[in-house]
Amino acid sequence: GGEIRQSSPSPSSSDRRRQLRAPGGGFKPIKHGSPEFCGILGERVDPTIPLEKQIWYHGAISRTDAENLLRLCKECSYLVRNSQTSKHDYSLSLKSNQGFMHMKLAKTKEKYILGQNSPPFDSVPEVIHYYTAKKLPIKGAEHLSLLYPVAVRTL
């Protein structure tokens, strides 16, 4: 199943359009709007918890799967998954106002960096923790921080 289905109208797509922006530009929290796995603002990332136990670590999901999860969540929602191109790296998938961004968390000399301008970190959770409070050093995402962790849905 590698085909990408774009235009299957889901019953909720019309509801979703209605609740994107509250009138007057203010953001009103919409209780019914986001699925339960979409994160809560300011949820603290504990950098001492190993990556495998972090709620926002989704393991070996594809880029498409990541986008399908993020599509239901707010801008600045994020998750971490295994990189599909190199097995020692991870990818940070982020929803921005332009769509989706996938940034490599590259491992160099036992340290992790996010993009070219990132300081090195000892672990992926430390990278994520840092960028929940700082703007991302990534072109196209300079105004974004990691605000809403997308939790793994436990079946």
TrEMBL record:
SMART domains: SH2. GO terms for molecular function: phosphotyrosine residue binding. InterPro entries: SH2, SH2_dom_sf, SH2_domain_adapters. Keywords: Apoptosis, Phosphoprotein, SH2 domain. Residues 56-150 form the SH2 domain. PROSITE patterns: SH2. It comes from the Eukaryota. One of its GO terms (biological process) is signal transduction. Residues 1-31 are annotated as: Disordered. This is SH2 domain-containing protein.
